[in-house]
Amino acid sequence: MASFSSILLLILLHVLMVFNVGDGSEMTSMDDDELLGLFEVMSSLLDDPTWAQEHPQPCTDTPWSGVQCELMAQDDGSQDYNPTIFHVTKIHIGNDILNPPCKPTASLSSRGLLKLPYLKTLSLFNCFNVTPVSLSSSLFENSCLSSLEHLALVSNPSLHGSIPSSLGHIQTLRVLSLSQNMFTGVIPQEICGLVNLQQLDLSYNHLTGSVPQEIGKLKSLTIFDLSYNMLGGQLPPSFGQLQSLQKLDLGSNNLTGRVPQEFGNLSRLVLFDTSHNFLSGPLPESLSGLKQLEYLVIQDNPINTGMPLFIGSLGRLKVLSFSRCGLMGPMLTSLSTLKNLTALSLDNNSLNGTVPSYIGSLPNLEQLNLSQNQLSGEIIVSQELINRIGMRFDIRGNNGLCIKNNTSREVKSCISSKSRTGGNKSSWGEQEEDECRNMNSNLYQSSWSPKNHGYEFRLGLDNMFLLLIFLLL
Ligand SMILES: *[C@@H]1O[C@H](CO)[C@@H](O)[C@H](O)[C@H]1NC(C)=O
Ligand SMILES: *[C@@H]1O[C@H](CO)[C@@H](O)[C@H](O)[C@H]1NC(C)=O
Ligand SMILES: *[C@@H]1O[C@H](CO)[C@@H](O)[C@H](O)[C@H]1NC(C)=O
Ligand SMILES: *[C@@H]1O[C@H](CO)[C@@H](O)[C@H](O)[C@H]1NC(C)=O
Ligand SMILES: *[C@@H]1O[C@H](CO)[C@@H](O)[C@H](O)[C@H]1NC(C)=O
Ligand SMILES: *[C@@H]1O[C@H](CO)[C@@H](O)[C@H](O)[C@H]1NC(C)=O
Ligand SMILES: *[C@@H]1O[C@H](CO)[C@@H](O)[C@H](O)[C@H]1NC(C)=O
Ligand SMILES: *[C@@H]1O[C@H](CO)[C@@H](O)[C@H](O)[C@H]1NC(C)=O
Ligand SMILES: *[C@@H]1O[C@H](CO)[C@@H](O)[C@H](O)[C@H]1NC(C)=O
């Protein structure tokens, strides 16, 4: 079957060559073998048996949007009168090109690709959907794809098997994205030899094993995404050598152990996401070195310490999430310096004590979740803050936390000494509870009743107090 179609291609190629000869010899040409390689690759992918006939000169007269060529000097040094030649440098197939992009039996022709030594970009999105396809090790061996800089095989539900270690041979690679496929097995150690790699995205696969110890060799890496796999083990300290790293997403894996000290060396890091793992605390104070950090997402790890002090020195932070991290003790008072903070999520921890007053004056805050803690006392909020945050303000599930509207004239404390220490629901008096309920229902209706002497209410007595501020509006 395969040989039959390649015989057809050969016949076609000969017809085309005869045609080309008649076309005039000054025409810039293409290597016959390379053209045949392109035809083979396209016929193995596309559901279009006439592609080769419709695009006999894909670099010149009959272009196709997913194929790009570049004019290069002939490298044989011959002094004939046609010193330049077209080479195929890019093959891209995705929904932007065709819909559906590939035939159900699509496969990757390694024999075809072997004939495309100038290919710099191979990107196949949503191409392998039905017939199982795996990456053969030979695809990256014997100087096959030896010019490749950008390999993106993304969103291919039938692309499975392991990531071949021979990928490590392609030293020219700058971008490697194998996201949203069905890859299993480990991340081959050989990947760490790709010293020119700037972006590595292996997210949304089923990779197991641990992150290779030598990951620090990828010195040019700026974007590194391993999220949504099943990677376990500890984080290698060599991560600290990735000094160019700007985005590191390790979320939704099975990582354990502590974040190593060396992570504090990642001075260019803008995003650090380790959410949904099994990382334990304490987090190293060296993380205060992440001066460019804007997104710190630790959510859902058993950190089980107090709030880390280094957070206060991350002046560029925009998003901070420590939800479900087992944080205990008081809220940090030093967050007032985080003027750019837009989202603060500390929900479902064991934080206790009062809420520091700076919370009400963080100028850019748009989302605040302090729910499910043991916070008490009052939060002073302005009408302006309420307008800004609206329904993204959640302080439910805190025993004895009150909201105080700082624009109202009369303010009455609703904190009982019992609530500060006890945090036991039944330690609240019935009367106080009723008072809060009344205030609450007034607030639901957005109506002011003089009988309540102010806009404040207690939070967290059972579930009956729904405390999203949007209900106030
Ligand atoms: C990852 O952790 C989950 C939850 O603990 C567990 O069910 C699963 O087996 C783990 N997977 C691997 C590959 O370790
Ligand atoms: C990386 O971090 C470690 C521990 O924090 C430190 O000893 C080392 O000097 C740092 N290396 C570089 C290159 O900054
Ligand atoms: C806060 O954000 C603004 C606008 O994005 C930026 O110009 C400023 O440098 C940031 N502040 C800090 C401390 O990073
Ligand atoms: C809080 O976290 C616990 C586990 O740590 C979980 O069982 C519970 O559902 C969470 N509560 C909420 C309201 O998300
Ligand atoms: C907070 O909880 C810790 C125990 O986790 C306790 O020692 C401390 O007294 C509590 N602080 C307040 C203000 O309730
Ligand atoms: C109310 O809060 C706003 C903003 O947080 C602040 O500027 C103002 O001074 C406060 N007013 C009073 C009376 O506390
Ligand atoms: C706040 O966190 C709780 C518990 O983690 C969650 O159930 C709730 O949906 C969050 N609230 C908002 C407004 O996001
Ligand atoms: C806060 O008080 C001001 C002035 O009394 C009032 O206009 C505003 O509606 C109040 N806001 C809330 C949420 O109670
Ligand atoms: C709350 O306090 C009451 C009486 O002081 C006690 O009987 C009850 O067990 C306490 N509940 C909890 C959850 O600590």
UniProtKB/TrEMBL annotation:
Residues 1-24 form the signal peptide. Residues 165-269 form the Disease resistance R13L4/SHOC-2-like LRR domain. It comes from Mikania micrantha. SMART domains: LRR_TYP (SM00369). GO terms for cellular component: plasma membrane. GO terms for biological process: defense response; response to other organism. Keywords: Cell membrane, Leucine-rich repeat, Membrane, Repeat, Signal. SUPFAM superfamilies: L domain-like. Pfam families: LRR_1, LRR_14. This is Disease resistance R13L4/SHOC-2-like LRR domain-containing protein. InterPro entries: Leu-rich_rpt, Leu-rich_rpt_typical-subtyp, LRR_dom_sf, LRR_R13L4/SHOC2-like, LRRC69/RLP. It is found in: Cell membrane.
